[in-house]
Amino acid sequence: MSRRHILLSCILCLPLPYAYGQKQYAFEVASIKPPSPGSVHQANFHVTPEELRLDSSTLSSLIVMTYGLRLDTQIENLPDWARTTVYVVEAKADEQTVAEAKGLSNEERTRITQAEIQNLLAERFHLQVSHTNKVLPVYALTIAKGGRKLKPAPEENPTTGQSPGSSPVAQESHAMIGFGKMDVTNGTMAMFVSQLSVMRETDGRMVIDKTGLTGHYDWGLRWSWDSVRDPGQPSLFTALQEQLGLKLEPDKAAVDVVVINHVEKPTEN
Questions:
Q1: Beta strand pairing status for 217-222 and 181-187?
Q2: pLDDT one-digit tens code per residue, 99-112
């Protein structure tokens, strides 16, 4: 499991080069190559405006990352090799970008990183995309009968040294996810639906938040990841209701879709 998502009448074509705000951002140097022969594929990654290091990445996962998607099912017209071929990606920004990124908010840093990776994909994979919205099957996360059982996050987090009365919004969120196990501190429903969307139990469907819960919460969840090896635990759907007072219901919703207009295998370094 990874730790690591109304029909529009028009399609927005993304301009090149890509920019955030009034400035164009691109990595100064970059390397995209296959893993060394015999190496073990590991999902190690480091993604910041200053540096990008991915030890085992497919083009589809890069597209998901840079366009703010949740699932590769939100990508259309992608060739098979783009979902299966693994690359080692290393890139560094210039000194000016490194200096500018210091002190920015996480959201601003993310936008710069996305612009850099979009430029990288355009240059090395000759990637050209367009955006549209499509109504697709999803799961809606709702509050189950009997009400939620989530525990509100305390306003003081000893691990951050913040004083009592500080807003939990400013504190970091932490998630530990394993096979049939999830423990979250200071999490939000936006975080939760992102986690649920990539689980095998939701079968490639995006999960959208319809709980109406806007606070920060702590929760633990246990379910049967393998009914043969762990028959004593409930299914994910049952565990959500029994342990958290939440429910997953089949639904349909407009989902952002990236359409691949042109792509090639990466050029030589």
A1: antiparallel
A2: 988 888 888 888 89
